[in-house]
Structure formats: C-alpha cells, structure tokens
Specification:
Two copies of one chain form a homodimer. By secondary structure, chain A is mainly alpha-helical. Chain A is about 80% helix and about 0% strand. Chain A is built from 21 helices and no strands. The longest helix of chain A has about 35 residues, at about 430-465. Chains A and B meet through helix 1, helix 2, helix 4, helix 6 and helix 7 of A and helix 1, helix 2, helix 4, helix 6 and helix 7 of B.
Chain lengths: ~475, ~475
Amino acid sequence: VEKMKRFGRLTCRKIWKVGKEDKRRVIHSLKVGISLSLVSLLYLMEPLFKGIGENAIWAVMTVVVVLEFTTGATLYKGLNRGLGTLLAGLLAFLIERIANESDHIFHAAFIGTAVFLVGAVTTYMRFFSHIKKNYDYGVVIFLLTFNLITVSSYRVDSVLKIAHERFYTIAIGCGICLLMSLFIFPIWSGEDLHLSTVAKFDGLAKSIEVCINEYFSDGNINQQEEKVKKYSMEMEDPIYKGYKDVLDSKSSDETLALYASWEPRYLRSCSWQQYVKLGTVLRHFGYTIVALHGCLQTEIKTPQSVRVLFKDPCNRLAREVTKTLKELSDSIRNRRKYCSEIPSNHVHEALQDLIDALKSQPRLFLSTNSNTNILLALATLATRQKSGKDFLVSLPSVNNDDPARLGLSHVLKEGDKKILRPTLSKNGITSLEFLEALPFAAFASLLVEIVARLDLVIEQVVELGRVAQFKEYSHDDVVI
Amino acid sequence: VEKMKRFGRLTCRKIWKVGKEDKRRVIHSLKVGISLSLVSLLYLMEPLFKGIGENAIWAVMTVVVVLEFTTGATLYKGLNRGLGTLLAGLLAFLIERIANESDHIFHAAFIGTAVFLVGAVTTYMRFFSHIKKNYDYGVVIFLLTFNLITVSSYRVDSVLKIAHERFYTIAIGCGICLLMSLFIFPIWSGEDLHLSTVAKFDGLAKSIEVCINEYFSDGNINQQEEKVKKYSMEMEDPIYKGYKDVLDSKSSDETLALYASWEPRYLRSCSWQQYVKLGTVLRHFGYTIVALHGCLQTEIKTPQSVRVLFKDPCNRLAREVTKTLKELSDSIRNRRKYCSEIPSNHVHEALQDLIDALKSQPRLFLSTNSNTNILLALATLATRQKSGKDFLVSLPSVNNDDPARLGLSHVLKEGDKKILRPTLSKNGITSLEFLEALPFAAFASLLVEIVARLDLVIEQVVELGRVAQFKEYSHDDVVI
C-alpha cells in the first residue's frame, strides 16, 4: 500500500510538472476535448444528424487527426487533408466512369490494377524530398481516400454521393479545427521559432559567462576537477546546458519553419528560411564554445598566477561578447533591426584591450613575449577568416590613431620584421613559463575565434532584420 | 513544346535518380501496391466480402497507414494500432454499458462528457516524453477508435459487433502489412542504423584524409583559396560532405534506434542505445574536424617551407588515424569485436614520430624550438584529457626503451626544467619564423586533439562490441 501511495504521488507530480513546463499544453488538451464534443454533436443532435447522416463520423475522425499543437501544424495537416481528399475524389470519379462501362469481372480486375498502380506511384512519390517535406500527409490522405472510394464503388452505386459526403464532413471537421486553432488561444509555430532563436542566444551567452567565470575562479583546483567530472556524468553542467539546445536544433528548427510557413499571420514575411540559416550559423558558433568548454576541462595546469594576470581583459572581452549576444537576442525579441553601431558594441575594442594588456604586463611581456605573438597571429587568422573584409575598416568606432592598433595592422599587412625582432632579441625567453602560458594561449585563441564567428552571426541577424522587415532601430528602444 | 519536352526530360531524370539512389524505394513502392491490391480482394471477391462485409474498408485503410518503409516502423505502427484499437474498444464498451441504462438525453450528455474527458486526458498524455517517444501513434489511434465507437453507439445498437468487426479487419490489415514487411524483401531499421554508423566512420576518415592532403598540397595558394571559397558557396566540399552527416545525425539516429528496437530479428541484442551513444561520441569527434577544416580555410599564411618539413610525420599521423577509423568501421561492418591490439593500430606511435620529427629537424629545432614545446604541451593536455588513464600503460606495443618516449614521459610527469632550458638558452629564436610556424601549431594541436577523442570513440566501439555480442576478433578476419 505504501508503495502504491508513493507511486501515485510520483505520477501526480509528473503530471503537474508536464503542465507547469508549458501551460499551453493544458490549453491544447482542453481545446481538443471541446472540439471533439462539438463535432460529436453532429452525430448526437437529431436535426444535424438528419442533414449529414452516417458520414458524420468522418468529421470526428478528421478532428482527431488534424488538430495539432500549433496553428501552423493544424493548417498544414488540414489543408493537406482537404487537398488530398479533393484530388483523390476526382481521380476516383474518373476511374469509376471508365470502369462502369465494362462487365463485372473486368470491373474488378480494373479496380485491382488501378489500386496497385496508384498505390505504387504514390508511395514512390513520397520519396521525393520536396514532396516529402511539404505534402507528405496530403499524399497519404490522397492514397487513403482514393482506395476507400474506388474499392467501395464496386459494391455501392452512388460513388459520387460518397465522395461528396466524405468531402463535406471532412470540410466540417477541418473547419472546426481551424476555428479552434486560429481563434481560441492560438499557438503559433512562428512565435515558437522566434522565441527558441532568442533562447539560443541567451543560452550561448550564459555558457560563455559561466565558462569564463569557472576559468578564472579562485577555487581549489581539485575541487573544480571533481565538479567538472560530476557535471559530465550528470550532463547538468550549466555550460553544457547553455549550448546543447543549439547543437541539436536542426530538425526542430526545420519543422517549426515548415509549419510557420503555413501560418497566415506571417505569410507576408517569408523569413522562416532566414531563421533556419541563422540557426545554422549559431550551431557553428556553438561548436567553438564546445571547444572552449573542452579547454576548461583540460586547463587544470595553467597556474593561478598566469590566469590572474589576464583575468580582467579576458573577462572584459567575454563580457562584451555576452553583452553583444544579449543585445542581439533583445533586438530579435523586440523585432527591431540590429544596429551594429550601438554604443555598447565594443567587442573588437575589448579584443584590442586584451592584446594591449598582454603587452603592458611587464613580467609576462618579458618572459612570454611569444604568447603575445600567438595572439597577434591569431588576430591575423581571425581577420583572414572574414576573407575580403577589412578588419579595421569595418570598425569605424575604433580610434585609428591608437599606436598599438597601428602596430598590429602593420604586422598584419606586411609581416614587418623590424618591429618584432629587436624586442625579442633582448628578452631571454624562459621556456617553462612559456609552457605554462600555453594552455592559456589555446583558451585565448578560442576567444578570438568566437569574436570572428560572432561577426558571422551578426551578419545573419542583420539579414534577418532586413528580410523580416523588423522595425528600424531607435534610441528609445534601448531603455526598454 | 520544346520547353515542355525539356521539363519532361528533367522530371524523368529526377524520377530515375530517386530510384537509383536507393533501389529499396522501388521495391517498397511495389510492395505497397501489391498489399493494397491484396487487401482490396476482401472487398472485390464475393465469398470474402460475404464473410466480412462493409467493414473490409478498414483493412484497406490500415494498410495505407501502417505499411512503412522499414520493418521496424511497420511493426511500431502495426502494434500500436492494434493495441490502441483493443484498449479503446474495451473502454468504449464499458462506457456504453453505463450509458445504456439511462434515458436518451442523459445518454447524449454522457457521451459528450466522456468524449471531452477522454479527448483532453489522452491529448495531455501525449506530452509525456516517454509516451511521445514510444506510443504516440497508439494513443492517437486509441482516441480515434474510442470516439468512433462511442459516438456511433448512440445510433447503432450493436456496438460490440462494430468493435469486433473493426478489430478483425484491422487485424487482417496489420497481418498483411507485417507479412509484407517481414518476409518479402524486408528492410530493417537496425541494418540501416548499422550501415549509417559504418558510413559515418568512412565519412570522417575521408574528411581527415582530404584535409591533410589539401593542407600539404603543393598547388598555388591563390588557387586553393578560390577552391575553398567555391566549395563553401556550393557546400560541395568533400571535407564538408564527409562530416556533415555526422553532425546532424542525432534525430535520424534516434528514430532508427526506436524502430530497430521493435524488430524481432535484433530484439535479443538491445544494443540500439549503444549505437545512439556511439553516434554522440562521433558527433563530438566531428566537432574537432570542423575546427580542423576551419584551420584549413585560414592557414594560407603558413609558408610552404614550414609545411614541407612536417609533411611526412603529419601525413603519417593522419594516415594512422584514418586507418584506425577504417578498421573501426570494418569491425562494425563485419560485426566482430574491435581489438585494440591489431598490429596496425599505431596512432600513438605516429604521434610520437611527429614529435621526434620536430626534434630531428635541425633548422626548425633551432629556430622554432617553442613549437616543439607546443606539441609537448599539447601532448600533456591530450594525456590529461583521458583523466586517470595512463597514456603509456595503455600502449603495450610501444617500446618503452625508446629514449625520446622516455624523455616525453619525463616532461609530462615532472615538467622537468633541465631538459628544456639548456637547449633553449643556446638557441636564438627568430620571432618571424615562430610566427610563421604558429598556424601550423594550431593545426598540429587539433591533430593531437583528434587522437585524444579517437580514444573515446574506440572505447564506445569496444563497448558496442560487448553489448551487441559481436563475434570475437580472430586473425583470419583481417584478410577479408
């Protein structure tokens, strides 16, 4: 008895949890119940039943099958079902016409052949990727309806009447479904896709934030190691949680975009493919964070002393990146165009600061000069990655008179030996410190890579703003 | 007319292509056609029709909906449909019993309420992830059947007879589907999952191979750059093609594993979750190759001279990695346990060779000694990543007397300053060459990372061999 009670309590809690996670689930369940009751009235109420007859049962069936969670999915299924039924009815009528003029046995053989041919051809058509993607359900319904009508035409005389009635009742069923999903607490796939994209940005920002914090946290190293191990066992690491949804978003994104493209509310925008594209770029951005996370799990050997020295500039860079990500998510959330000149978008300045900081640290500048070079080289790589775009030109807000910056561009453009050689030749390089600083260099290189990929993300967000005709950026919005 | 002709030719070619890509599609289409013709006989042939009656139409419907491409999917749908119908029939019968004892209006109200309640509760149940995953289709069919029987019970007296007939005809339909999918050219989801896993290994091996070849190819650098650009536009890059299926494999893997778990042929093994796990590890392996690919797109600045020097050891390491991947794919393909002592599995020796080669290159040893250190440090990282496992102990075939190896382990274990310091202090380090060698260091570091992740993949393959009870490794098999 005690066991039963516990089991009951667990079940109750689970039922509660599913509803609490997303309240729309409860609403949707009630909607299905109401629609079914409504459609049952066709059968239960005398006057309605007299008008429609036995075939009212098809309306019940349609509601069960068509009414889906989101409006887009319901429209997709409803319209596919309607179209499939209509076409199948027409084809069946045609075949019936031909077959009717022959005798009984030939009639049966003809129907058998038609069923075989239509079945095989239709099934084959389902393998075409375009049809599979947009009309799969319609094709199944076509095949179903065609077979039902053709086969039963052999025993029943009034095929046309069957087809008619079936079509009417299905239309009634679809009508109730559309009414329910369009006007009573509608749940839009487009909205879901929009919000999931915003959530992706927030998750990535969170991941980077936690990553940096853990990297520079002062805690006992062994403790950290154990924490990491524990996390990887339970898959509950906040960093992992932040990016895992991004990595596996492909199929859900595509499904939502497909359904969203059927929703009338958003028909004009046609921006769903852009959301899918943005998702792809975000996934590639996510791969870099996976690498950064990997860096965190192996970086145990970077001594505290080295980490402390770079804590501030790294923190600043990461803060700027997360800030930019949050700005991007805000601009999408509020459906306004992202403006790359927003005052707080100082990522590249922060990157520059990190490089400056490395130079201005006398101890490390002396002992691990090569480390700075690593960063310079990485900056070169990052710039080249954008292939064709000028790193400096694209950043009008950066002060070009900054000597360090000029020095950098000098190195980048000519690989000038004069600047670097003298400084190096007078420094004795201590290999051990260099060895110790290396894991940090790997970490920093990933930060630079992240900045480079962030630019690609920004590009796609701007494109999204253009395609989806978001409203123009205005300064008042920033306050909100 | 010319345009029509061209369109016709294009369509024909597309139809041909879809069939050629996978011949089983044609077979499946024919199977559907035959099944439908067979099931139509129930209706068309006089004696059969007399036995079953009008309800034969449900058998046609079942065949259309249940007969899927793979046996697993058909079984999943067929069994779900059978179970759903049975349970719905029982519940409907119970409710009918209660309702029948009341008057007409109360009867209608009772049915309406029951339809509402069952509809809402069932729909809510579909949001539970476990039910969603394994029984979604069954729940829909349950709701459908329940409504059909309950609602029509209001007008028809013999509900039990309806339920009976419906169940029989659905059983006939399911039976034909199962017969067709189990015994006539069966297409197994498990086989698909197995082969797609093998293909993933081959794709990854191909990616690494092409990556290394392009990196060390002597061609004009500008030409390469343009090729890369062209590739990224058309998404037809062989490297990209190799790993893209791996990255997005999550949902298809899980679907195939779900269907495969219904297939009787493989029921005993229960290894499908291990395939999914292996897929996850392979995806993480793939992320590293994405990074390696990124390295290729930005490495334009590594001078030919540096690359040529490291060509052989890098090639060897990559060759060993691809060889191991191919061995893994072979062992899975032939369903035999992977034996990590296969003579050709010399990845870690190749890694050691790369480090030795760096040391033995006098010019580079002198000028870019730090580069060697990068690799040493990376090797340290790689070893630590395996947290707890001893790098050297796990490689019984490596000759421990090899002095270079001992030197490495020395550095790894004690971070010995004595070995490294003297060499460095007597070398004048030319910063520019170091800067030039850096992109190569990034490339090499990823190769080391790949070796580290390869170990995780091997671990999962060995686990798969254990869980799926593959046959033992024997030396004779290698020849095959």
